[in-house]
Amino acid sequence: MSANGDATKPPTILEKIYAQRQQDVEAAEATPGTRPEEIDAYLQMGLAPPLIPLVPRLRTNPSTATASPSLSLMAEIKRASPSKGDIAPHVNPARQALLYAQAGASVISVLTEPTWFKGSLLDMRLVRQAIDALGPARPAVLRKEFIFCEYQIAEARLHGADTVLLIVAMLTQEQLARLYAYSLSLGMEPLVEVNNAREMTRALEVGAKVVGVNNRNLHDFSVDMGTTSGLVDMVRERDVVLCALSGIQGPEDVRLYKEQGVNAVLVGESLMRAKDTTAFIRELLAWPGA
Ligand SMILES: O=C(O)c1ccccc1NCC(=O)[C@H](O)[C@H](O)COP(=O)(O)O
User: What residues make up the domain containing 183?
Assistant: First the structure.
C-alpha cells in the first residue's frame, strides 16, 4: 500500500493496520500447520464448507416478495474499533449471528482483525457453524479484513467465508484485479469497498458485482452519510448490488438510501449496541412481518 504520499506525515490508521497485518500474515505463513501450501492442500481436499453465492443472497430478504425496491441487511459482529475503542468486547459471535440471521440478515460480516477490532478467524468460524443449522437459506458469511494477498482469501474460504472484503484504497489496480480474480476462482464474489468516484471507477473496471461505499473515511475516521448517495448514479444502469457501509444509526438513514436506489446496508456499531437486536432490526429495515 502506498503511504500517504508524504514521508514526513504520520501514518494513517489504514496504513498502521496494513503494516500490522503484513507482519501477522508473515507469521501465519511461517507457522507449521498454517503455511500457504498447507492451506491450499486443505482446500484441494475439499475441506472448506459449501458456499452460498453472494449476489442472489443479497437480492433476497424478508421484503423481496412485497416491497419494491427492497433492501437487504449486512449485519456486522464488531467487538471494538479504532474510532470507538471497545463496543462489545465480550459478545458471543455465534449467538449474535443467530439473532441477526433469525431477524432476516442476508449477510453476517465478521471482523477478523485482532489488534484494533478484537476479532479472529475463530469468531468467523463459530458464526458459520452456528448459522449452518439454518440450512440453505442461511445468511452469507463475510470475512471483514484488510486483505492484500491470496493467503488471506484462501484462509477465509477454508474457515467458512462465502465472501471477502477488498478495500480499493489499500490496493494497486493490479493487486485488486488479481485478488478479485482469485476470490472468484474459489467461488466467492467479493464485496469491493470504495470511498469516492475514482475508487468506484476502479471497482467497476475489475468487474465488481457487489460494491460497498464506505461512508467512513478510513484515513481520518470522519463519517459522511452523503458519500454513498453521491455515487449512486455511477451504478444506476449497471448490474451491481450497491451497499452503503458505516455510520447507519436508524430507520431514517435506511429509508433515504432505499429511496435513492441503494440495495443493501452494512451496520455494525448500532446493531452491537442495540438493547433488543431483533426489534432494532425490524425498526431499521421496516420489513413486513420480519
Ligand atoms: O470502524 C472503524 O473505526 C474503522 C476504522 C478504520 C478502518 C475500518 C473501520 N471500520 C470497519 C468498517 O468498515 C465498519 O466496521 C463497518 O462499515 C460498520 O460500520 P458502523 O456501522 O459504523 O459500525
Answer: 55-285
Q: How many domains does one find in the chain?
A: 1
End-to-end Cα spacing for the chain: 42
**Chain segment 192-234, per-residue pLDDT in tens:** 999 999 999 999 999 999 999 999 998 888 999 999 999 999 9
Residue 27 belongs to a domain: no
CA gap 272, 249 in Å, rounded? 11
pLDDT in tens, 235-258: 999 999 999 999 999 999 999 999
Task: Compute the C-alpha angle 19/23/26, nearest 5°.
Answer: 135
Enter the ipTM: 0.98
CATH code of the domain containing 219: 3.20.20.70
Between CA 81 and CA 87, with CA 82 as vertex, the angle to 5 degrees is: 30
Task: Please indicate, yes or no, if residue 183 is contained in any of the structural domains.
Answer: yes
Pocket perturbation via mutation, ligand 1, pick of 221, 246, 271 by most ligand atoms within 8 A of CB: 246
Q: How does strand 80-81 pair with strand 85-86?
A: antiparallel
The answer to whether residue 274 is domain-embedded is yes
> Does 204 contact ligand 1 (Cβ within 6 A)?
no
- Residue 62's pLDDT band (boundaries 50, 70, 90)? confident
Q: Is 13 within a domain?
A: no
**pTM across the whole model:** 0.95
